[in-house]
Amino acid sequence: MKKLIIIKYGELSTKKDNINYFLSCLKDNIRNSIGDNCYIKFDRGRMYIFPNNENEYDVIISKLKNIFGIHEINIGYKLDSNKLDIIEENLKVLIKDRSFNTFKVETKRSYKNYNMTSMEVSKYLGGIVLKSLKNVSVDVQNPEFLINVEIRSDSAYIYFDKIAGIGGYPVGSLGKGMLMLSGGIDSPVSGYLALKRGVRIEGVYFESPPHTSDAAKNKVCELARILTNYSGYIKLHIVNFTNIQEDIYKNIPHEYLITIMRRMMYRITDRLAKKNNCKVIINGESIGQVASQTLTSMVSINSVTNMPVIRPVACLDKLEIIDLARKINTYETSILPFEDCCTIFVPEHPVINPTIEKCEEYEKLINVDELLNEAVKNTEVIKINKENLEFNDIL
C-alpha cells in the first residue's frame, strides 16, 4: 500500500481529443510549483502524485490549492492488486483509527471486466466496516465519512479526505494576455480571473514620476507578486508615462483628459502585447464605475486597438469585486494610499459620452507617434515570482 495524492480534474474532463495537451500543461505547472520532490503520472481520469517524503504532504497540498486546473485533491492509498480480499484487508487498516458515526462506501470501476458491479463492491465493503467498528451506521444521503474505492485493471485506490481545488484551466494552456495592472482593486482581480481561464498574463503598469512615487510602483510589484501564487511568475512592463500625461494636460481640453490618456495607454499596451506574443488585452474595467468606463467611453477608448479586450469584472459590482480581492489576498495591498496615473490630474467634470471624432481631433494637438515610440522604447521589464519579497519592505 502506497500513500499518494490524487488529483481530480473537473472541467478539464470535458476535453476530448486534446485533453492530453491540457493535462501535460497541468503536470508542468504542478512540477514548477512543487519541485522535484515527487513522482507525477496521469491518465485521462486522474493525476497521481507520489511525494518522496511523508513530511512533504502538507507543503505540497498547500501549493496544489493555488494551481488552476485542479477540481479536487485527495490523500489516498494505492494497492498493487484489485482483488477484493486485498481491498478489504487494507481498508480495515486504514479505518481502524478513524472516528465517525455515519459512513458511505462509493465505488467506481474503470475496469469494467471486474467480477462484481460497483454497487456490489460498495455493499460488501460497507458490511466489512459495520463488522469492524462499533456504533457506526450507513447513511447514503449525508454521510459523515465517505470511503472512496476506485478499481483499475491491475490495482485499486482507497481515499477519504477531499480538499477543494480552484478549478479552471491550467495557466498557459490557452495562450497569453497583457494585463493593464494598476494599483487599484479591480485589475488584480481581473488578472486572477484570466489566469483561471488558462491565460498566462504579463502586466503593464504606467508610472508618472515625479507625480507618482516609488511606493506606488512597488505596490503594483507586490500585487503582481501576490498573483504569482497562482501563476508561478509574471513579467511586468513598467512604462514611464510622464511626458505623455504632461502633454495631454497642457494641450487637451480637460474634460477629455482621462479619455485621451486611456487611449494612449491602450495604444502602448497594444504594442507591448503584440511584441510579446500576447493574444488579448485584459483590464479591470467595470461598466459604469467611473467616467471612462461608460459604454460610450469604452467604445471611444477601445477604437485605438484591434486586439480583443477582455474585461473579467465588467459585469460585477464593487462589493463583488472586493469580495474576490479579499479571497485572493490582494485587497489590503490595493487599498494602500499611493496615487497612480489614473488618480492624478483628474478633471472636475470628465466627459462621460466622448466621441471618436472628438478624440481624433484633440489628439492632433499632441505628437502621438513620437510620444508612443519613446514610451515603448524606454519601458522597463522585470520578472516577478514568489520569492521577490523585497517590495514588502517599501510598502
Report on the architecture of this protein.
- Helices cover 38% and strands 22% of the residues.
- The protein has 395 residues and is an alpha/beta fold.
- The protein has 2 domains: 2-167, 2-Layer Sandwich (VC0802-like), CATH 3.30.2130; 176-394, Rossmann fold (3-Layer(aba) Sandwich).
- The strands form 2 sheets. Strands 2-3-1-4-8-7-5-6 form an 8-stranded mixed sheet. A 6-stranded mixed sheet has the order 13-12-9-10-11-14, with helices on both faces.
- The radius of gyration is 27 Å and the shape is elongated.
- The chain starts with a strand and ends in a 10-residue tail after the last strand.
- The relative contact order is 0.12.
- Mean pLDDT is 93; it is low at 389-395.
Characteristic terms for this protein:
395 residues, alpha/beta, VC0802-like, Rossmann fold, 2 domains, six-stranded mixed beta sheet, 14 strands, elongated, disordered C terminus
* Class by SSE composition: alpha/beta
Count of distinct structural domains? 2
Low-pLDDT segments: 389-395
Helical run tally: 13
Order of helices and strands: EHEEHEHEHEEEEHEHEHHEHEHHHHE
Fraction of residues in helix: 25-40%
Report the span from N to C terminus: 50 Å
The first-level CATH class name of the largest domain: Alpha Beta
Envelope shape: elongated
| CATH homologous superfamily heading of the largest domain | HUPs
Give me the CATH fold name of the largest domain: Rossmann fold
Strand order of the largest sheet: 2-3-1-4-8-7-5-6
Largest sheet: 8 strands, mixed
